Amino acid sequence: MGKGAETRERILEIAEAAVLAKGFAATSIDEVIAEAGITKSGFFYHFKDKNRLAREMLRRYVETNDQLFDEIFDRGRQLSDDPLQAFLIGLKLLAEVMADLPNGHPGCLIASICYQERLFDREIRTLTAQSVEGWNTRFRAMLEDIASVHPPRVAVDLDDVADMLSCVVDGGIIMSKTLNDPRRLERQVLAFRTFIKLIFSEPPAT
Questions:
Q1: Where in the chain is the domain with CATH 1.10.357.10?
Q2: Nearest alpha carbon to residue 52 among 158, 123, 134
Q3: What is the pLDDT of residues 80-137, one digit of tens each?
Q4: What is the pTM of this model?
Q5: Spatial distance between the Cα atoms of 95 and 190, rounded to a whole number of angstroms
Q6: Cβ atoms 144, 125 nearer than 8 A
């Protein structure tokens, strides 16, 4: 990575941390510049305005999460040919990743943007919606694979169950931060894992 790319990445890291800590409106370009140790012209070389910074932060955030999901759930598929067991392994690995974060999850950039959506242009709002829809579609495809082998024991809408994982993660982040208990997120993911087992596993023999 060249020096220019390193500077750009450093700006995005600083900006994301500030936005997650106090929101986009309260994060100024001047403080990002000061933290990064660059000039204003250096900042505007990489990002022409605050909205452009937000777009690139969002793209980076989504790419990072996509990579995380790819690695975790691909690992589950490597460890089991059964789609249910592979998904359960993936959820267990996801919970472990959340538990390994030293100070808990820093927060959700998507949520931060939604809470202050009037500050952003249409492109950012569209990117936000597309990223959430993309994650829901990803999980829905996994659930369809599971249902084709393990029909649900109760009538469920797979779209709602797919949406639930995103809700569990974001809700777990909020609860963890509010109650100052980083393990809440891990436990919520594991609770969702148990829910999936109850829906798709065969009932015990009587």
A1: 50-200
A2: 123
A3: 999 999 999 999 999 999 888 756 677 777 777 776 766 677 888 888 888 889 999 9
A4: 0.85
A5: 6
A6: no
